[in-house]
Design goal:
Number of helices: 5
Largest sheet: none
Structural class: mainly alpha
Strand content: under 5%
Radius of gyration: 28 Å
Shape: rod-shaped
Oligomer: single chain
Distance between the termini: 71 Å
Length: 110
């Protein structure tokens, strides 16, 4: 399955592509911690009498979730701007037509 890669001019503006390295670092920290814990569990199964200690994954997961939360906020803000993009022009459009209507009314009344 091929992955869609947007054109370069879109990639430069994309929130994901601007934060890709940060995302990768945080993601890898979580994955490495979980892999280490998986290895510890497998070792414990092989030798139940040995003492086992796990890596604390809470800090890396918290950092990763915080990063995702910030990105989602940026995306929501961007989507809100797109959704409301027509509102500033609506007032300008109404003013334009009111102004033009007044001008034409003067010609029609005379």
């Amino acid at each position: 399955m091929k992955c869609y890669i947007p054109p370069k001019k879109i990639r430069n503006k994309s929130i994901y592509f601007r934060k890709k390295s940060d995302f990768g670092n945080l993601y890898n920290a979580v994955i490495n911690c979980l892999k280490n814990n998986k290895t510890e569990i497998e070792d414990k199964i092989k030798s139940p009498s040995c003492k086992t200690s796990f890596d604390d994954s809470s800090s890396s997961i918290k950092s990763f979730n915080g990063f995702i939360y910030k990105i989602n906020q940026q995306i929501a803000e961007y989507n809100k701007k797109i959704y409301n993009k027509h509102k500033p022009f609506k007032g300008t459009k109404n003013l334009f037509w009111e102004y033009n209507a007044l001008g034409y009314d003067e010609y029609l009344i005379i």
